[in-house]
Amino acid sequence: MHEEDRVLRRERRLLVLLGIVCLALVGGALYLQYYHGEDPCPLCIIQRYFFVLVAVFAFLGAGLNGWRGVALLESLVALSALGGIVTAARHVYVQARPGFSCGFDTLQPVVDGLPPARWLPQVFKVAGLCETPYPPILGLSLPQWSLVAFAVIFLAVVVSLRSKRRLRASTM
User: Fold this and answer.
1) For residues 131 and 39, what is the distance between their CA atoms, to the nearest angstrom?
2) Which helix (H) or strand (E) holds 126?
3) What are the residue ranges spanned by the domains of the chain?
4) Complete DSSP assignment for 92-116
5) Which DSSP letter does residue 66 get?
6) pTM, 2 dp
7) What would the CATH number be for the domain defined by 2-171?
8) Span 30-47, average pLDDT
9) Which of 15, 52, 97, 157 could form a cystine bridge with 58, CB 3.0-4.6 A?
10) Is the dihedral of CA 20, 26, 28, 30 positive or negative?
11) Would you say 18 and 153 are in contact if contact means Cβ atoms under 8 Å apart?
12) Residue 151: beta bridge partners?
């Protein structure tokens, strides 16, 4: 039982770390938006939603003491990260094909119509186009960094869930 408690504490620390990283990434995006004039497109905003979802689920999971609740919220973190992977991959695809639109005309009203866009327009309001290239950061575009971040989050949680499943199976 002592080993299970230690592993659960490690899981909760991982979730706190993931939540902090996701909020820091959204903060970095806001910095680029307001201090470098890099206006967010619909796909950028959707990625912000996925980062916030990962953070919310991670912090909720970190606050739980039971394995089932932590595993459920880790699964929701993985699903949110998977949604972020799909969105970021689409954004990378759009930017790799100049002249190919992300569907600004159809996505923008949907994204701007979501409640958080009305509550926090400075964070969740669309202001740019998906195909606008901004200067790379350490050789990667912002959508590419987002794709890397979501992939790392997804892999970390999946590995964690699998190792936890093995531990639970070996103690039974």
Assistant:
1) 11
2) none
3) 2-171
4) HHHHHSTT----HHHHHHHHHTSHH
5) S
6) 0.88
7) 1.20.1550.10
8) 91
9) 15
10) negative
11) yes
12) none
